[in-house]
Amino acid sequence: MSGTVEGVAVPALLVLIFAAIAVLAVRARRLGTPDSFAPADDRPATPVLQGALLPSNPPVVDGLCLSWSYAAATGPGAGGGDFYDAFFLDDSTLAVAIGDAAGHGLTAIVAMNTVRQAIRSALIDGARPADALRRANRVLLRSEHPGIVTALVGIIDPATLQFRYAAAGHPAPLLATAEGTCAPLPGEGSEIALGVVPHHVTSEHVVAIPVDALLALYTDGCVTADHDGIAGLSLLADALVEARTLAPSKPAQTIDRAIFGQRNREDDATIITIAPEALLAHLDVRLPAELSSAALARTALRRFLATTPLGERRTFDAIVATGEAVANAIEHAYDRRPNQSFTLRATCAGQTCTILVEDTGTWNDVEPLATRGRGLVMMRELCDTLSIERMATGTTVALAFQVTSNVADASLTAV
Which of 147, 178, 183, 188 has its CA 20 to 30 A from that of 211? Predict the structure, then answer.
């Protein structure tokens, strides 16, 4: 039975693969380099084909520095198993995926591309990382050439730096910190790769990435070789720590050079690095209407306000006042119904920072907002202007803070 990936039959993928080889060969001849695909060149064609199937450049992400590096194994006929991917989701979060198909050549390329496309389509449809891996496993097992593939899938929010990930037989990510440490993230979950069992189960993990850290996802080709008696994983960890400070723009390439230099590679080696940037150009984040989102909203707002001239004191006022608006959205807008969300936006123009908390629910009128404790009063005292617009489609709370205003200092002193 022929397998499919998002409606494309696996045999059709083989047709596309061979067509890509032909197109690349024609382009090479037009450039005056007909021998670049000749057998006498002793270079494998699979890395060229693999490069045509995988994304060329990382997406540009406000608040994150993303880089990647891929190098095929040395020698004719080697390579073809690694894949990597990164793309935006509808809620402005960033999805990343990395994996390694067993074997080499066209068979490995077909398996890795089947899994990559299945993961991508699942995440675009709203699946969480563990669910995306389960779907990829089903798709792989139903293909004509299933193969075995390890993979890791993650979703990171550029504003809150929350990283949710799951693995299938793949090494856990490494995190290098400002203290000079480098350690793997929690990796408990499935040790079983994709394409092995029909019902794949794995655990999800959620971690907060420090703003001054460097996160690396990698394939096992990065840690298989020793150099001067130093184990491959130690080489990778040391290179990651060094790249955190010495290579802020393209750390993945720097790490690869530190590990391999000019030495031969026994296997494909792929690295994805994610480095939070200290500053955010703007803030626009959607969060679930759950109590745990309050802390994420504070983190996101704090990162954005660090880019503005608001100052430490007014930034504190803005975070406290916005926290009250977020709490109201979580508690009242949906009456604690599941699967709801709210949006936090912030801009700074001239001397005014404006923060919006928007929801699409209907506020609970059993206990009117004006009679609930000090929340509304606190918001009015801390910001310069406050407006609450309630409509049938939802509620928007707008808080404005003047950079030069000291109103909050006086009001807090009186309290």
Answer: 188
